[in-house]
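re the bet — no i am not wrong, look at it urself. input seq straight from the record:
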Amino acid sequence: MSTNQSSGLVNVIDGVPFTTSEVVSEHAGIQHKNALELLETHLGVIEAAFGKVAFETRPGYNNSHVRFARLTEAQSTALLTLMRNTPQVVDFKVNLVKAFAEATKTSVPALPSRAALAQMVLDAEKELEAAKMQAELDAPKVRYHERFVAETDDIMTIEYFASHWGTTEPQVRKMLIEKKIAVRRCIGKKWSKSKGCMVDEFEWRPRQGTRYVEWFKVLPQHDAPRHHNGQVRQTMYLFSFHSEDLAAKLGLTQPVMFEGGDAA
């Protein structure tokens, strides 16, 4: 809903105060066409410093159209500085500054009431409590999908790769960062039960612009609980045929052997 108010020198529409070239010319004691010519002569400098000037038209005498400029406080002040400092112009400058100051005060939106603020706090607490409960319910499913679920036979989880090469998943992920093979990308927030607050939530991605992008596959986990922001979780898998390439890059030399001589 549009809200308008006017002080004669300054108008306010939807909380934005402005004056016009017609107001400036009338109170500065010059013809409007001369004010427009002065504005257009120095338009590039004014717009470069104070933003684009909005030109509009209104119905005039005998079906004519009157072109005028809508000016912010900075734009109108700049235009006035280009005029001679006659007593009339000086008085108008002072009055215009006062009018803009008054319009700015009256256009500040009202602050929410105490009751509204209290309700906002209650709503936020309810949302936070719901997020905590959902995070606790989802945690086992999230851990399961991140650690064990592979969509096809030609890819493996980082957990499986680590156990296959006789190390741990945290150690492998640490080396992925150190070797600049993969990165952790922040995708939002989640509730941390141990810390008792919302914390950043990350997903793993192969480092873009490197050959390692072809070693991994990122797949959406549609059956896993979604992130706090509603996004579908995505998990980074390793293509099985790049397992030895990654092991060599990380300095892992021997896969774990089961009894009977087969690798894990």
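see?? The mean pLDDT is 82. told u. also The CA atoms of residues 15 and 106 lie 9 Å apart. so pay up
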